[in-house]
UniProtKB/TrEMBL annotation:
It comes from Arachnia propionica. This is Putative gluconeogenesis factor. Belongs to the gluconeogenesis factor family. NCBIfam families: CofD_related (TIGR01826). It comes from the Bacteria. Required for morphogenesis under gluconeogenic growth conditions. GO terms for biological process: regulation of cell shape. It holds the Pfam family CofD.
Length: 316
C-alpha cells in the first residue's frame, strides 16, 4: 500500500474511449499507473491485423498509450501520431499508425508486453499498458429482441464489433475461449495496487470482460486495494435504456461475489435513478456523486473534473 507522501499505485481496467477518458484523468493524479486492457476487438484496423498476423488486437492498447502521453507539446504530438490513420483506398487505408507500430514491434520482439513497454518509453508515458489476457479473445453475447417477429427469443451474437453495435438487448456475455489465461503481469499489478478502477466504458465489451478471465477476476475479488467503479455518463449503445442501477446489477450477475468500495457516478445519471445508492450498497460500496462531465451537451467525462474526483478518492 502507498505510504504517506507517495502517490498511489492504481490499476485501471477497460478498453476504447472509456479507458482513454479514465487514464487521461488518472495521469493527472499519479504516475504509478497501470492500464489493463481488453483484447477482444475484432473490428476495423485491429480486426484486420489480428486476422492477418494472429496477434493481439492493438487498437485499445494504442488508445491507452495515447491517453498516458504527457500534456507537453511532445506528448500531445505523439498522441496525435498514434491515433492518426492512413487515408486513401489502398491496403493501408484505415489503419492507425499506432496499431502498425505496435504490431511491428510485436513481430520483432515476439513479446507483447515488451513491445508495449518500448512504445511507452518512446512516448514517455505516465504509466504502463498491459493486455488483460495472453491470447486474443472473442466475445459472445446472449441477446433478446434481435428478431422483431420473435422479441422473446434468445439469440447468440459473436464478435466484439457485432455485440457493440447490436440494437437487441444484451442479457449476458462470455469469452471464447472459455476461462482464458490472464497475463501474469496484469494479475501481479492488481495484487500490488493501492486502488483499482473499473469503468467507464462499453459495459459488455470493455468492462465486464475483465471479470470473465479467472485469474484476473480472482485478483480483483481478493485484492486489498480500494475498488472503485466508475459509471458511464449515461446509458448508451450496448446498455441503451438501462438504469444506472442495472449497470451495477449486470456486474454482480457476471461476478456474484464482487465487492466494491466506491461507485462514482455523474450527478445527472445518478439523479435519474433513486435506487442507485441501494444497489451500490448491495456490493458494499459508498455512492459518490460528482459533476464529472463536459458541459457541452455531450455525454463525455471531463478529464479535469474526473481527475478532481479521483484525487479526492485516492489521496483525500
Amino acid at each position: 500500500m502507498s505510504t504517506l507522501g507517495t502517490l498511489p499505485k492504481v490499476v485501471a481496467f477497460g478498453g476504447g474511449h472509456g479507458l482513454h477518458a479514465s487514464l487521461s484523468a488518472l495521469r493527472r493524479v499519479t504516475d504509478r499507473l497501470t492500464a489493463v486492457v481488453t483484447v477482444a476487438d475484432d473490428g476495423g484496423s485491429s480486426g484486420r491485423l489480428r486476422t492477418e498476423l494472429g496477434c493481439l488486437p492493438p487498437g485499445d492498447l494504442r488508445m491507452a498509450l495515447a491517453a498516458l502521453c504527457g500534456d507537453d507539446q511532445t506528448g500531445r504530438a505523439w498522441a496525435r501520431v498514434l491515433q492518426s490513420r492512413f487515408g486513401g483506398d489502398g491496403p493501408l487505408a484505415g489503419h492507425a499508425i499506432g496499431n502498425l507500430l505496435i504490431a511491428g514491434l510485436w513481430q520483432q520482439l515476439d513479446d507483447p508486453v515488451a513491445g508495449l513497454d518500448m512504445v511507452g518509453e518512446l512516448l514517455r508515458t505516465r504509466g504502463r499498458v498491459l493486455p488483460m489476457s495472453s491470447v486474443p479473445l472473442q466475445i459472445e453475447a446472449d441477446v433478446l429482441g434481435l428478431d422483431p417477429m420473435a422479441p422473446d427469443e434468445m439469440c447468440t451474437l459473436a464478435g466484439q464489433a457485432t455485440v457493440a453495435k447490436t440494437r437487441a438487448t444484451v442479457q449476458a456475455v462470455r469469452l471464447i475461449p472459455k476461462d482464458p489465461p490472464a497475463h501474469p503481469e496484469a494479475v501481479a499489478a492488481v495484487r500490488d495496487a493501492d486502488a483499482i478502477v473499473l469503468g467507464p466504458g462499453s459495459w459488455f465489451t470493455s468492462v465486464i470482460p475483465h471479470l470473465l478471465v479467472p485469474d484476473l477476476r480472482d485478483a480483483i475479488l481478493t485484492t486489498e486495494a480500494k475498488r472503485i467503479l466508475v459509471l458511464n455518463m449515461a446509458a448508451a449503445e450496448e446498455t441503451d435504456g438501462f438504469t444506472a442501477s442495472r449497470h451495477i446489477e449486470l456486474l454482480a450477475e457476471h461476478a456474484p461475489t464482487l465487492r466494491l468500495d466506491v461507485v462514482l457516478a455523474n450527478d445527472q445519471f445518478a439523479e435519474s435513478d433513486r435506487h442507485l445508492a441501494k444497489f451500490a450498497a448491495s456490493l458494499g460500496a459508498e455512492l459518490v456523486v460528482a459533476d464529472v462531465g463536459v458541459h457541452d451537451g455531450t455525454a463525455r467525462h471531463d478529464p479535469n473534473r474526473l481527475a478532481a474526483a479521483y484525487s479526492e478518492l485516492l489521496i483525500g
